[in-house]
Amino acid sequence: MADTRGTEMLLRAGFIRQLGSGLYAMLPPMTRVLHRLEALIRHELEVAAQEVSFPLLQPAALWRQSGRWDAYTRAEQIMFAVTDRAGRELALAPTHEEAAVAVARELVGSYRDLPLSIYQIGRKFRDELRPRAGLLRTREFVMKDAYSFHATSEDLARTFEVMGDAYARILTRLGADWRAAQADSGMIGGTGSREYLMLSDVGEDEVLYTADGLYAANAEQAVSHAHPAPASPFTTFERRQTPGTPTVASACAVLDCEPAHMIKNVLYEAEYLNGDQTSTRPILVSLRGDHSVNAVKLWNTVSARVEGTLTALEVADTEKWATSLPLGYIAPDLPDSADGPFLRLCDEAAAGLRNFTTGANETDWHMVGANWDQHFPLPEVADLRQAQAGEVSTHDPAQPLLSARGIEVGHIFQLGTRYTGALGMTYATADGSSQTPTMGCYGLGVTRLAAALAEQCADERGLVWPAVIAPHEVILTVVDMKDAAQVEAAETLYAELRAAGIDALLDDRPLRAGVKFADADLTGIPWRVTLGRGVAGGRAEVRERRGGEVQEINLAEMVQYVRDRLGQP
Amino acid sequence: MADTRGTEMLLRAGFIRQLGSGLYAMLPPMTRVLHRLEALIRHELEVAAQEVSFPLLQPAALWRQSGRWDAYTRAEQIMFAVTDRAGRELALAPTHEEAAVAVARELVGSYRDLPLSIYQIGRKFRDELRPRAGLLRTREFVMKDAYSFHATSEDLARTFEVMGDAYARILTRLGADWRAAQADSGMIGGTGSREYLMLSDVGEDEVLYTADGLYAANAEQAVSHAHPAPASPFTTFERRQTPGTPTVASACAVLDCEPAHMIKNVLYEAEYLNGDQTSTRPILVSLRGDHSVNAVKLWNTVSARVEGTLTALEVADTEKWATSLPLGYIAPDLPDSADGPFLRLCDEAAAGLRNFTTGANETDWHMVGANWDQHFPLPEVADLRQAQAGEVSTHDPAQPLLSARGIEVGHIFQLGTRYTGALGMTYATADGSSQTPTMGCYGLGVTRLAAALAEQCADERGLVWPAVIAPHEVILTVVDMKDAAQVEAAETLYAELRAAGIDALLDDRPLRAGVKFADADLTGIPWRVTLGRGVAGGRAEVRERRGGEVQEINLAEMVQYVRDRLGQP
């Protein structure tokens, strides 16, 4: 059942129980962890925004106004749609941009009401195709989502940084190993976005970053300088027979060149929805033979160039095209098909290539020594290439890109006027004219953050919570419940810790000490005080869960010792 | 838009905004009120249960196991059903008995794990036919719901009282005007339930209660002694011609008797679902001419006597039956129709009647001087009558029933084994045998409670929150922002109050004092400190929102004064 160590430990330790695919119940210790995490988030956001709460059910009309109903329900199928008893459609919200604008447009009349920043902590729903890894990818989860409205993009940029700073403080206080990375804005849209990722082998995202700390980006978005192509062995433009070489590797072998000398031309098919009508368009992407297409960059590029909502973008079905096209030998100037003209795109690195080889538009033939404009018209150029670890960063040629896996826990966006414009939100400026405010949105996964911490911190004995969100701060374990002195010392210490505002738990179950130690380790309470034979001499053992470090302390000094270790004043 | 004063004030004061039918956004002040209310509820429940959190989306299979899927989706249509991308049905939970058992059955192995009491605070959904009165009846709302599991019904009864005591403390701390009342268990089921109602003219429920405080019940459930029928004027059983008298009033006029001398026989039609098959059954209810049928009592009585899920119960369609039956002249022994035998029921008060008049099963004819068993077989007897204000209570004939309107804010149930049995939850007893635990559930409407308080407390100037959940405890209003002494005194006092842990708000907007006073009244902050010219002499005015009482206090004593009034140590 559990596909990651964190999930396994959360299940074994009784923090969560699965109720259905991607649906989990939070049991008492997890509820405590989440409450403490939410309190920490509220504390750090207090300076940045006011708390509100939006309904999870929302009229479909709102989502139609923003143009997202079709994209979310039909294209991505990521949004649950509900029909009420009167036959009206409702969205079960995966995000709240529409609701935030609908409320903000009633609260904001003039420039004096701006900026407005609001946030909520609550449930979200996504009809995930493949829920996985316990709380990391579920169909129902808790998020903190904030929305801000501004008169100017400079003011938006300031709030974007204020929110980013709050995220940095939150992740740092949690002791997380994290990176902020440039990111793709995806279906949310907007002009710029930044992800907050916690590094973990079970993460679904790849982060490319430099060691100097000046660059980090999701691989979906990352840019780099491609390794320069070595000088081309071809100097003359000519046609060569290359039998049985439909792949880059086989063609290079026959032509005695490297993949970096080749332009490959990949056929895609786009499907898009305009109103109720579905259309398709063939796409031809030219890129260097040693590079691969970044699906997200291509999606965004194509999405901006079709009329309507892009609903699918796939490498063309070879069976369908095999009879009509010279697949494996296509040139950038392949004539348009009967289905309509190609959208022709060329990757930036491919656009810089000289004396390249490419297909000859005829099976078993290639062209060599080709140059753009001279032999083939250069298609529209865009960054379509997947950046890779080992390539050189764009800000400093001495900094190669490094790679790590990450769990996206936060994502913040400068949206611009996409939603405020679509939903007709305006404000009166100082001179009385009407303007559309610019908008930002800021998401932080609460259940995912807790789960990512479980992944980062768990060891083979169980969970290891940071004290700031642990279900309890200290556990007092009585070694021998038949020893009245041990029991009495534990109860006294428990009362003292509680009185000092420390969240202590007393394990006075009549079980063997070993069982109790294992349970405490599994639960991940940061400090364990063991009350054993030492209490006769007024002493007890304190053990730190994370490092396993053990110290013997006088009972009389225990409260102060624990307080110091928890960093409390 | 606003159909009650509380709703009107919540909208005007910027606490809530409507986003769709029965769907509201909570704005910052309402979010503060709800957080404080939730904290108060958590505090009072801490002794009774542990907090958990269940998913709102739940596999339909769980609801089919309990037998409620059809009743909630098809019969009452009160539950939103969602279909995921794989075509599987999910419930959008209106309540969580199924989820609670599904989790509890994994947590409970033996009698040593019992009792188990858990609660959550979260969203619920109901596909209401007619949302109304702002937050009082919505399609999405916040509830506290608790579930408990026990080895014995005595232990369940104890927890039932512990939960009831917590509700009583919560409502009392909020200063609510409330009643605990015997209630119908409705679709939740179970052997006994109690409602907590806040009295309000906008309430949808009627409470019948006695002045001695010993009896209170929802009118749906209330019992009473009917006024005794006066001695019958009929002494001989005979047939009388009564042309054109299909109603009780017209028949009494012709027969020269009172409605209390008559047995009326009312035809109902029940529709019920067994598996996928819908069946109907005609029902004949005999009751005294001066009484009316209690729809809830009848539903429950019929529900227990049909095989399957009762989905509809309506007075028979007169057009359908007018040709085949002597409507208005029916006797208790009306022959069974071709559609199947009647379910025949007689109300308790009607069963005690002697020498009554009733229909003769022939249009324009009645029987008089009739007696049960002698002239008509007595049908199955049940309490089917609507109790009414003015009737005598069953516990003390000197206590007449009084009537009030109430808003149901809480409802607690002793469920028995309905859900634990259906979902196969068992525990091992001390002797190793397997037993089904008995269960209780305990609901408290959080958003509804806040809205009911708004209804009870609002006056013509706005909201009046009790200090314990007010969005702020004190508002400091600067009369003249151009007077530096006033501004300075306000800022100093604000800092002092904050330092003392009092949630103060400073109104330093450059507006006329009258506008600021009106806003403070509208928002309903319990205490207002007015910093005006008096600050020159070191004094300020304190005004209580509820009573309007005003006092002048030395600024130096203000913190202590406010603290005393808030009841803080």
TrEMBL record, chains A, B:
Domain Aminoacyl-transfer RNA synthetases class-II family profile positions: 50-466
Keyword field contains Coiled coil: no
Top-rank taxon, per record: Bacteria
Gene Ontology cellular-component annotations: cytosol
The protein's Enzyme Commission number: 6.1.1.15
GO BP annotation list: prolyl-tRNA aminoacylation
Group of enzyme by EC: ligase
Keywords: Aminoacyl-tRNA synthetase, ATP-binding, Cytoplasm, Ligase, Nucleotide-binding, Protein biosynthesis
InterPro entries xrefs: aa-tRNA-synt_IIb, aa-tRNA-synth_II, aa-tRNA-synth_II/BPL/LPL, Anticodon-bd, Anticodon-bd_dom_sf, Pro-tRNA-ligase_IIa, Pro-tRNA-synth_IIa_bac-type, Pro-tRNA_synthetase
A GO molecular-function annotation: ATP binding
UniProt KW Cell membrane keyword: no
Transmembrane segments: none
Main location: cytoplasm
Subunit-level organization: Homodimer.
Protein name per Swiss-Prot or TrEMBL: Proline--tRNA ligase
UniProt organism field: Deinococcus marmoris
